[in-house]
Write a structure and sequence with these properties.
By secondary structure, the protein is mainly beta. It has helices at residues 3-11, 147-150, 165-171, 307-313; strands at residues 48-50, 76-77, 84-86, 94-96, 107-112, 124-133, 143-146, 154-157, 179-184, 205-215, 224-226, 237-239, 247-250, 261-268, 278-287, 293-296, 303-306, 325-329, 339-348. It has two domains: 3-215, Chitinase A, domain 3, CATH 3.10.50.40; 224-348, Chitinase A, domain 3 (Roll), CATH 3.10.50. Helices cover 8% and strands 30% of the residues. Strands 1, 5, 6, 7, 8, 9 and 10 form a seven-stranded antiparallel beta sheet that branches. The longest helix has 9 residues, at 3-11. It is elongated and about 70 Å long. It starts with a helix and ends with a strand. Mean pLDDT is 79; it is low at 1-9 and 11-74.
């Protein structure tokens, strides 16, 4: 079992990236289309590399738009790819594709250069995007997914095989705040051979991507003040320091019940967690009986989850500020034994 699938089961996590971009469990690309996950505002998380704008903050709306950045002149003609892109940075773009065959090679055009930090391999990247095929389908260009209509960006680990190869090979090295146009040959997308079960297989793809924020999964951590009030009885002992990965150090007295039990370890300094938003999280999971760590997002990729799902399991986070850390002993069942989770809220969007 991968860490993502296990922690998804614990917190009902929103997919870490749009399903159309994600890898399936067997390691191949998944071409199903679904809502993308939200992961936008770079708020009080200590590991945020940069934000797309002041609007992408802890208090940003659920559909953040980096309006503080210079707009893309409309239209923009890609000199490398020959595609016309209309629409301002942060808004849903429209693409006009020239006639003729798609480029045989991977190509990237920076439509609007950003001024933020450079995206590094292994970062958890937050983007808005639109994807479509180069060639028409049934007489029309096929737009297969976009985060703008979902009113939420997508978050995923970049350069580590969580998304299609064309994204891994082009988005690492971009600056936060950039809008880029990418054309991806089939071999770097969903495979060169057409497939009856995968409509994107064999297709050359085009993407417009707004690079909004990135987070270092090795260092992103709760940032605030250590809570000195004793935890409720029944919770484990946790070595919890601001800015560092937590560790469960003892399970004396831990007895999972029919409902989750949680307590706040660090109180953040960001905006209060909004139930209507999505959270970007660091999570450590440990065995509820032994306290042995079983999984962690630290050093891998942060996860996104709906605030409602998180606070439904970790009640101590209800109304807590972004940047907070809480520990929870989940409810156990015959199908899924109880677990200890230590959850850092890095950002909300």
């Amino acid at each position: 079992m991968t860490i993502n699938s296990a922690l998804t089961a614990r917190l009902i996590v929103v997919p870490a990236a749009a399903a159309v971009l994600a890898l399936s469990a067997c390691g191949g690309p998944n071409a199903s289309t679904s809502s993308s996950s939200a992961a936008g505002s770079a708020s009080a998380g200590a590991g945020a590399s940069a934000t797309a704008s002041a609007g992408a903050s802890a208090g940003a709306s659920s559909a953040p738009s980096p309006s503080g950045l210079p707009a893309v002149t409309s239209p923009v003609i890609s000199t490398k790819i020959g595609v016309k892109v209309t629409g301002n940075l942060g808004d849903k773009p429209a693409l006009t594709v020239p006639s003729g065959a798609a480029p045989a090679d991977l190509a990237l055009e920076v439509l609007q250069p950003g001024t933020g930090n450079v995206v590094t391999k292994g970062d958890t990247l937050v983007v808005n995007y639109l994807g479509q095929t180069w060639a028409p389908k049934d007489g029309a260009v096929y737009v297969f997914d976009n985060s703008y209509d979902h009113k939420a960006p997508a978050a995923f680990g970049i350069g580590i095989g969580q998304v299609i190869k064309g994204w891994d090979q082009t988005l690492v090295g971009q600056k936060i705040g950039s809008r880029v146009l990418i054309t991806i040959p089939p071999a770097l997308a969903y495979g060169a051979a057409a497939s009856a079960t995968n409509p994107l297989a064999g297709q050359a793809l085009l993407f417009v991507v707004d690079v909004m924020a990135s987070y270092d999964a090795k260092t992103s951590a709760a940032s605030g003040t250590v809570v000195t009030t004793p935890l409720p009885a029944g919770l484990p002992s946790v070595d919890s320091q601001v800015g560092k990965q937590p560790k469960v150090t003892g399970v004396t007295g831990v007895k999972p019940g029919a409902a989750p039990l949680s307590g706040l370890l660090i109180k953040g300094t960001g905006a209060p967690i909004d139930a209507a938003k999505t959270l970007l999280l660091q999570i450590v999971e440990a065995d509820a009986t032994t306290g042995t760590q079983s999984q962690a997002t630290w050093g891998q990729a942060l996860q996104s989850a709906s605030a409602t799902a998180v606070t439904g399991t970790v009640e101590a986070l209800k109304g807590a500020p972004v940047g907070s850390r809480a520990v929870v002993v989940t409810a156990g069942s015959s199908a899924q034994p109880a677990s200890i989770l230590v959850v850092d809220v890095i950002a909300q969007f």
